[in-house]
Amino acid sequence: MKPRQKRAMFIVAGVTGVGLAVLLVLNALKSNVSLYFTPTQVMNNEAPHGRSFRIGGLVQEGSVQREKDGLTVNFVITDMAKHLPVIYKGILPDLFKEGKGVVAQGKMEADGKMHAEEVLAKHDENYMPPEAADALKRAQAAASGVTEANVVSTAAK
Known about the structure:
The protein is an alpha+beta fold. The protein has 2 domains: 1-33; 36-156, CATH 2.40.50.140. The protein is 38% helix and 26% strand. It has helices at 3-32, 39-43, 130-144, 148-156; strands at 36-37, 53-59, 65-66, 72-78, 83-89, 101-108, 114-121. A 5-stranded mixed barrel has the order 2-4-5-7-6. It is elongated and about 80 Å long.
């Protein structure tokens, strides 16, 4: 084999190896990405079906019900416009309370409820992720009939 052919084979092998590595990394990232949605987005069928995702909002007042087994908890997450029932089996965070912010990760099932694998409670009452705060403001505005332009202008202040 000529040196020119050897060099071409090494280049082809290198490009193929890098392409395969990139493909494997992207596949791993795709399977581990957990998208964030609000109850309104889930009810509008914007959330993925058959895949795990995160839903954030407030725990609706009076919605927390504990099963007799001591681990299963039923509650409702709301963004003040739509409500989504959640079933979680496990130990809840200490800061989990009605009326407080929560993020649940899980899948929507055929029964119309989210079966959560993980529940995270907001650790500080003054902080909320910008996406969640904007979604709650828009949902509250939609429920009260305020235009989105007013919501954006008040959020910018």
